[in-house]
Amino acid sequence: MQRPFRRIIVGSVFFILTVLGAVYGYILAGWSVLDAVYMVVITIFGVGYGEVQPLDSAQLRVFTILVIIAGVLSVAYIVGGFLQLVTEGEIRKVFKNKRMTQEIQNLQRHVIVCGYGRMGQMLSRRLWQEKQAFVVLDQDPERIAMAQELGYLVYHGNAADENNLQAVGIERAKALSTVLPDDASNVFITLTAREMNPALIILARGKLPSTEKKLRLAGANHVVLPVAIGAIRMAHLITHPTAVDFLSQTDKGASLNELLGELDIQLNELPITANSPLIGGTIGDIEVRGRGTFIIVALRRATGEVLIHPSRETYLAQDDSVILMGHQGDMPKFAQNHTHRSGMRYRGARVR
């Protein structure tokens, strides 16, 4: 089957040649140019107003019949090309949407990105680079088309609608990020998502500092304030320019943890599991056992509360996680030694 554009071009060329040939034929028969053009138009398009001049010869009648056949065929060929173009485009669109819907239904432990503005685009690009499964949910057709051209899974709809959140598999997702420019929308989406999936990790964008409390009350695990982050970075550039420049001068935009890796330093997580002998102990106990091979950066409680640089007297409970920073070879040895001696299970995870 010929491609639609080729059919349209071929049909148009044939139609033009038919019109020119028919006009020239009637002129040779002694007709004026205007009469010839008028005759060709009413003949090809079947208007049926009657002949301009009588067709008094068999040759002229046969010629008119040929003009009718050639004109109708060329017009039909052009119309067929247009229909094929529209039909194939619609069919391709239907199959593409169906395939995408099927892929979304098969997603597990994925991320839902609500909003494909500037922040959503940057987030999606990063998730794509990290090969993290995700789906973009936005109600703007232009933004959806833009994301679809990049190969992202997309769904056109309002993120505040429960039906749309169900369509992108919120019950199977591991995280949802709502990065709309409107704080009220982000609060409502957070509230809806938390109700639909209590175990979901929700990251929300806040435009105003006063919105952070509302987002956390609505169920957000983490709140990002772009304005505050920008202001803090500018302040650091003023007060600590050399340190900031050092952290920024990494090849190909490497992350902080990659830079630490080059220095043989790593961030690790030490979970306090159900059978851990550290339950009931303190941060100081870990520091003593570590013998100065690492420092404790933070403590994440089972409730989600994060304590930055906890004191030595801070007690440890089940399902807490201790964030450590030290040389890459020291922390696994520390965990292995305590595993053999105390049966403590350790899960090291490099922070990305």
TrEMBL record:
Membrane topology: Multi-pass membrane protein
One Pfam family from the record: TrkA_C
PROSITE patterns found in the cross-reference section: RCK_C, RCK_N
Occurrences of domain RCK C-terminal (ranges): 254-340
Keyword Transmembrane helix: yes
Chief site of localization: membrane
Annotated GO biological process: monoatomic ion transmembrane transport
SUPFAM superfamilies membership: NAD(P)-binding Rossmann-fold domains, TrkA C-terminal domain-like, Voltage-gated potassium channels
Record domain RCK N-terminal: where: 108-225
Locations listed in the record: Cell membrane
Keyword list, A-Z: Ion channel, Ion transport, Membrane, Transmembrane, Transmembrane helix, Transport
Signal peptide boundaries: none
Membrane-crossing residue ranges in chain numbering: 7-27, 33-50, 62-83
PANTHER family tied to this protein: POTASSIUM CHANNEL PROTEIN 2-RELATED-RELATED, POTASSIUM CHANNEL PROTEIN YUGO-RELATED
Name of the molecule in the record: Potassium channel family protein
Source organism phylogeny: Bacteria, Bacillati, Cyanobacteriota, Cyanophyceae, Nodosilineales
